Amino acid sequence: VQLQASGGGSVQTEDSLRLSCGASGFSLNNVAVGWFRQAPGKEREGISCISTSAFTSYRDSVKGRFTVSRDVARNRVYLQMNSLKPEDTAVYYCYIPDIWGQGTQVTVSS
Length: 110
Fold this sequence. Notes:
The chain is mainly β. Helix content is 0%, strand content 54%. The strands form 2 sheets. Strands 2, 4, 5, 6, 9, 10 and 11 form a 7-stranded mixed beta sheet that branches. Strands 1-3-8-7 form a 4-stranded antiparallel beta sheet, with no helix packed on it.
């Protein structure tokens, strides 16, 4: 059972990125999936979550800019990030209960 976040990169302020969370060995469609991030020197923080019924929630700092969604056919969960800011710079992780995915680095330059 493995979870992997991908799609990070280095972008400029106001650019967009789409992160992808993929799984091997199980179906993401049957679990809630969370997105977290950890900036240098800071604690890991939760930023978004999508339930099995597609209910979504967001941290205040990303509301209106980030959108989480599922692709059931591809067994993936996406995090669309628009209007990126330097303070969004962090390693981003996807998470299901008891399993952390390998993170992907997002760097936003001003």
